[in-house]
Input
Amino acid sequence: MPKLLPLLEDVVKKPVWDCRMCGQCVLHSTGMTCPMTCPKTLRNGPCGGVREDGNCEVKPEMRCIWVKAEERSHSPLNPHLWEEEFNDLRPPVDNRLKGTSSWLNLATGRDRRTPAGWQGVARERHSAVPGASMVEIDEPTMLPEGFHS
Amino acid sequence: MSRLSTLIEEGTRPVVTAEFPSIDGGGLAAVEKAADELRPFVDAVNATDNPAAHAHASNTSIAIAMSQFGLEPIMQVVCRDKNRIAMQADIMGASLFGIENVACLTGDDVTAGDEPEARRVFDLDSTQLVKVASGLAEGYYLSGRAIKAPPNLFVGAVENPFAPPLDYRVLRALKKAEAGARFLQLQIGYYPERLEAFVRGCVDAGVTRTTALLPTVVLTKSAKALSFMDESVPGISIPANMIARVAGAGDKDAIAEESYQLTLELSRHALSLRGVSGIHLTDFRHDGSLERLVRDLGIGPAFDPVATATGTTSGTTSV
Ligand code: SF4
Output
């Protein structure tokens, strides 16, 4: 099942939200607009280049995804449960999760794991392997395909 | 503590920052010349990081060179060209040379530059970078690896009060302030009412309690320059009546003068707002107008009663 999940997730989310399978989905908190479709992949709000008409600096024919997100976050059609999360500070993307199922990562909590420095703490000096404190892979299936090769 | 951070914290007078011209060769003499021109009139100057996605002498090298010539740098770091490892390394490296002021930017897209084929990085976004840079000053890298002797850093960012979604810009400023930004240089803007609403919003939301707002004004000398910014610079829009006002002023000299007057008005307005700590100047004229502007406004080191009395404006201050 875990192997099928990324596929299933892609099939469901790609057509609706143009999902990029970053593996750490924040759709619910961004007005159901995927920040990974922003050409700059900004997860914490719009860049300074948004055009006067609300379209994207990079793709003038596309509405800035953050303009869309901001509008949608107030829309009556959206789940409002998470509206207050809209302005949360979202952590840097864990590039290792690309291509994995965010559903699974949500279930295991893997998508919420961030480096110690992000949590504002200095790590123990003598960690055995460099970076060891953040690499705790519970499930080999969470690794992107080809990771082992 | 950087001089900029001290001035902002003391809050006894508006600070003046400016943009350093891009340097492409010419050795340190090129940096020295530009530094000499700016030094008497500004408190700190941005060492830009490949502005508008055009390659130039790097942010770190210019920041270090500037400080050697007695000009306090604000090192810009943009997220477009480097990943999180390289950006942390740049900030740490520059700090060895005493560079403390760091401005974190998203950066114009590669398509805005002359090498649109380039790979865009954006491994972190600007708000994340603010937090990561603040962490360095607290003694750890993003990984959590401890830094025994952490650098002194004065971390800031930029925000654009003039671009959509307008309602959201204050929240974004707040997010950056909460991530650790102690100053926000604001994008070039020609809508005083938008600036006013943004600054008021920032005061109400508590942004200005921790974070200094520095609106930007630009010195131009033609209506064409305004039209160019309006049409070609991402995130800048200029009302048609302002461009018409400058264009219709008369001959070339009259147009240059009208452009100056427009900048002076916008500067006065910005500085009159409660919550504004100073101003950021971008000079596209290079004809002495920057000096004229700080004189007309009566701000900056040249007009600092305390510093003038003690002789600290002579340019010998080093960082
Ligand atoms: S304008 Fe909007 S969608 Fe385009 S790069 Fe900027 S934030 Fe992303």
Observations:
- Residues 135-149 of chain A have pLDDT under 50 and may be disordered.
- Residues 4-118 of chain A form one domain.
